[in-house]
Amino acid sequence: MTSRTVLVALLLAAVAASCATAQLQEKFYSESCPNVEEVVRKEMVRALSLAPSLAAPLLRMHFHDCFVRGCDGSVLLDSANKTAEKDALPNQTLRGFDFVERVKAAVEKACPDTVSCADVLTLIARDAVWLVSSTQLCKWQYVRDKAKFSMLLVFFSQSKGPFWEVPLGRRDGSVSISNETNALPPPTANITVLTQLFAAKNLDIKDLVVLSAAHTIGTSHCFSFSDRLYNFTGQDNASDIDPTLEPFYMAKLKSKCASLDDNTTLVEMDPGSFKTFDLDYFKLVSKRRGLFHSDGALLTNGFTRAYIQRHATGAFKDEFFADFAVSMVKMGKTDVLTGSQGEIRKKCTVVNH
After folding, report:
1. Alpha-carbon gap, residue 288 to 167, rounded angstroms
2. Among residues 62, 64, 215, 311, which one is catalytic?
């Protein structure tokens, strides 16, 4: 293949991607399903009022969907022979699949055969971020009475998390392959690998540091970072540690994760505020207390380090929230299927027959 042929192929691919994202619109369902966001949010309010810790897994699920085959809902598909994306090692700790299916069922009841699972998951992720910071304001249980539910929404509208309008119109893919999850940025990645994996999804260095701050909510299993505590260079002993990790924080982590064999213990990614979407992540990383190697790697690049140090001051919350919204919208347009591409699944776990 000549260099000219390669160039033409790349240009055509770029044009196709641009056309696909251009078909996404904030008011895509204004006529076909005008209440879709209300339906999704109602389910989200009910879930997060009872289990606020579900927000982070739902946000993570959207990330993992978009980085493999684009935002096409392929991470939600089941496989009889366990070869789908959700069966791959990086996705075996994902949770919330049943909840996504419940939201999709509610949407189907309101607007049959209209809204894709990919769009449902994207809306869920946005509301997870927006609502999670308000869950501490209200401990009421969800009730079916409309008046009380409206009052509950008022409490949740006081959320401190970022909010953004979601361009919609994605369609669902029909292929899900576990081996393709190597496109996911691993927690062990250095800055070079991270920038390469993000660039492959048309995300730049700013998107990398901004979206990494999603680690301000949620927990992680010890095995995702225990090599930093016991096996950093492959020696597999207590002294084989990551020298870039702050010593007191390392000691605290070792007290929770006793060995490399710990596959069950969960650790807060943002200790003290892991249920609140805030700027504490930047404060931690700036002090070399980022949980993952990939968090610490952000201090090895001039731009990402400067961004972290700026927001570690806590003085620019609105600026960060705006940046996060922009990067989430950008990621949400990754390799989307639109128009006649793909399908609108009735159930998110299986393709239509």
Report:
1. 36
2. 64
DSSP track, 17-40: HHHHHHT-BTTTTTTT-TTHHHHH
pLDDT in tens, 242-297: 999 999 999 999 999 999 999 999 999 999 889 899 999 999 999 999 999 999 99
At residue 80, the 3 state secondary structure works out as coil
| Phi-psi label, residue 164: left if phi above 0, alpha if psi -120 to 50, beta otherwise | beta
221 catalytic? Reply is no
352 and 346 in contact (C-beta within 8 Å)?
yes
| Per-residue CA distances from 339 to 9, 21, 35, 345 (Å) | 22, 10, 21, 14
Query: And the tokens for 14?
Result: 């770029």
Residues 6+ apart with CB under 8 A from 288: 244, 245, 246, 249, 296, 299
**How much is the pTM?**
0.89
Task: Tell me 232's DSSP state.
Answer: S
Using one digit for the tens of pLDDT, what is the confidence trace for 198-208? 999 999 999 99
Output the six-digit token pair for 238.
């207590």
